[in-house]
Design goal:
Number of strands: 0
Oligomer: single chain
Largest sheet: none
Shape: rod-shaped
Length: 118
């Protein structure tokens, strides 16, 4: 009967004292450690990036809420102004026409006066 330590009758992949299987395992283990460390750095970077994105989203949502309230107040102000214009337009057209004629005459006399002074 032969000894298991010399490569026969032992577990598969065990080559006795030559160390071929152990060196292959060691190289794979080192590469796994290197890849694991690289993956750890990438996960940490993605985590910090996602946290920053979360903070930015919260800030943008706050800004949008403020803009929404400002637009609501502006819409109310504009609505009230339009209602006042509707009331004004329903008023007497004769009165408005009279004001327009007086303004036109005033502008005409100012222009006449400026031309006369030259």
């Amino acid at each position: 009967m032969r000894r298991a330590g010399l490569g026969e009758g032992g577990p598969p992949g065990s080559y006795g004292n030559y160390g071929y299987a152990n060196s292959g395992y060691s190289a794979c283990e080192e590469e796994n450690d290197r890849l694991t460390e690289s993956l750890r750095h990438k996960v940490t970077a993605i985590k910090s990036l996602s946290i920053e994105i979360g903070h930015e989203v919260k800030t943008q949502n706050k800004l949008l809420a403020e803009m929404d309230s400002q637009f609501d107040s502006t819409t109310g102000f504009l609505g009230r102004t339009m209602e006042k214009l509707k009331i004004l337009s329903r008023g007497s057209q004769t009165k408005l026409m009279c004001y327009m004629m007086l303004f036109s005459l005033f502008v005409f006399f100012v222009i006449y006066w400026i031309i006369k002074l030259r």
